[in-house]
Each structure stands twice: as structure tokens, then as C-alpha cells.
Amino acid sequence: MAKNNFPVVYYKTAMSQNVDSLNRVAVSETTVYNGSLVTLGTMGTGAAQGMGYVFPATLTSVTDGNVNDVWMVRGPEVSKEVCGNLYDDPREFSIPAGTPFDIIRLMPGDIIHVSETTFGDNTKPSSTNKYGYADANGEWQAASTATDVTGFVAQYQGTEAIVIGQDYLPAHILEVVKNPEATIS
Q1: Is 138 helix (H, G, I), strand (E, B) or coil?
Q2: Is 62 exposed, middle or buried (0-12, 13-18, 19+ CB in 10 A)?
Q3: Which secondary-structure segment (H or E) carries 49?
Q4: Which terminal Cβ of the chain has fewer Cβ within 10 Å, N or C?
Q5: Helix or strand or coil: residue 176?
């Protein structure tokens, strides 16, 4: 059993698997986890200063779900510390501040498999709370309706555990419904 229970994310189908422009490298000033929802700044600025083709990422910070152009952290769950220890349990995987990581832009029609821990202490998805949107600290939030949400929204499709060794991690299948482009001012 893992001593931590960080979020675990898998693709079912995602446009980013076939379209390179939906995959980027980012860096954050805070620790992030797979499944964290982020927005991007201008390439090579902020936390990405001097890193070339790397974007500074900021965890979503709204509490009403009204955030556009959402990207999801999706790094390979192989973590190597300075002492050379390898973790093979994805529940132990986190990305320290200042470390580059992979992100994908979630597109309508993408189907992803996320552990319940992706929702933090927020409401979990279910047949009654069937919509997920971006919440504070890059976490997901489930709600019974998404009519007031103008930004990123995913819809609950079902519950299916993620098997890790002999453990069954509670998880949900979500389909992205919308992820509007950022507004240009």
C-alpha cells in the first residue's frame, strides 16, 4: 500500500495522443500532481525563464469553474530522487516545484480515467453529481449541474477502479464536454 495517495490519471481516448500541438512542457512554482488542472503563461517567462520551449503553469484558482483554456498535468509516473530511489507506485508520484512536466490540453470528446484523489476534498462525481470542472488548487470539483459554468467542463460517464498491484483505487471515467479557448483582450 502506498504511503501517499496522490492522484492517478489514465487516458481512455484523448486527442492529444495524436495531435502534437495539444502536448506541451510546463513548469510550476508549486508542487503539482497528475490530473492537476493548470493554465499557462507566456513561453519562457516566469517559472520557465531561460528554459526555452517551456510554459509557466499555474494551478487553476477559481471556485466557480469559470476558467478557459485548461491543461492537465500528465507526466509519466517514474520519479527519480537524487539518491536514485525509483517509485513504481503511481500514488507516490508528484512533481516538485521548478521541475518540467508534461501537460495535455483537454478537448471535447476526450475520455479520461481519474482517481478520486484528483478531486481532493471536493465533491466526487456520481450519477447525481455528474459534471466536473476546474476548482481551486488545480483540483476537480463535481456538481449536479454545469449550466452556470462558462469554462472547462467534463461529464461523469461511470465509475471504474484503477488497479495498482493488488489494490483497487476508486476512480471515475469523465468525458470532456467543453474547454473554451482563452479570451484575447
Answers
A1: helix
A2: middle
A3: none
A4: C
A5: strand
Higher pLDDT, 78 or 89: 89
Residue reference for cell 469559470: 66
What lies within 8 Å, CB to CB, of 52 at 6+ separation is 44
d(CA 159, CA 39): 27
Name the residue with cell 512536466: 101
Mean pLDDT of 91-118: 89
Distance CA 172, CA 31 (A): 23
From the list 70, 110, 114, the residue with the least C-alpha distance to 91 is 114
* Choice between 29 and 119, residue whose per-residue pLDDT is larger: 29
Q: Are 39 and 69 in contact (CB under 8 A)?
A: yes
What are the pLDDT digits (tens) for 105-116?
999 999 999 989
Q: What's the predicted TM-score (pTM) here?
A: 0.87
Coil/strand/helix, residue 136? helix
Phi, psi of 182 (to 5 degrees): -65, 145
Q: Is 71 helix (H, G, I), strand (E, B) or coil?
A: strand
Instruction: Give the pLDDT score at 72.
Output: 93
Residues 6+ apart with CB under 8 A from 96: 31
Model confidence at 54: pLDDT above 80: yes
Is the four-CA dihedral 50, 79, 162, 120 of positive or negative sign?
negative
